[in-house]
Amino acid sequence: MKGRTVLVTGAGTGIGAACARRLAGEGSQLVLVGRRREPLEAVARETGGLVLTGDAANSGDWTRFIPAIVERFGGLDGVLANAGGHGLGSATETSEEDWQTAMRANLDSAFHTARACLPLLIDRRGAMVLMASIAALAAGENVCGYTTAKHALIGLTRSLARDYGPQGVRVNAICPGWVRTPMADAEMQPLMDQHGESLDAAYARVTADVPLRRAANPEEIASACRFLLSDDASIITGATLVADGGSSIVDVPTLAFGRL
Questions:
Q1: Are 207 and 213 in contact (CB under 8 A)?
Q2: Is 203 designated active site?
Q3: Which pTM was predicted?
Q4: I want to staple 136 with a disulfide (CB 3.0 to 4.6 A). Which of 132, 185, 208, 257 is the partner?
């Protein structure tokens, strides 16, 4: 990855920040995109990346971003569409506004990132990774908007891979399970409140049936992203890499037998 220019959305915290640090450590030049300047600048102090503040789901912001990228780096070799958000509630509990927010944060952000960056990736026969989730493969309880948007990201990945492969662009998706990030920490709070337990105990509870019995750390997901962006994955496109500690392979109806 040395000498390559990679754009990361949602780069200020969590998985995005871990990916930025990993890529910078291997000599990549970074474009750090996000809505909050302070976290982005904190990452940039470590990585030397170009900070671009705005909404990845806003096509107007990309009209500002792309010229700045070309002026600074001349183009792009890789893109990690990592920006995302929540989409909580069942269908009947999800308002029209909540639905649109979930689609915008998780799907529109990836689409607008891809559409804006593809001309630069075509020029350099680059690679793109979309950050999906195991919610792209199965449905959790009361997360209708999030589940639907993440499922759609797999379709977007395959469409992009099919259409732009002939021009040398590879596009893949990553599906993490639980990852210990600030957003996931906040999702543990109801369990902590209900059971009067620590954050570590809450993570242990949600991964009790995961084969590896733990959540990932952001650096582990960064390693997977680095692989898909690199020449080590030169023949891989349109693929979905599951990084969930094995949770998606568990046969849920047999869990009761394991507790006998």
A1: yes
A2: no
A3: 0.93
A4: 132
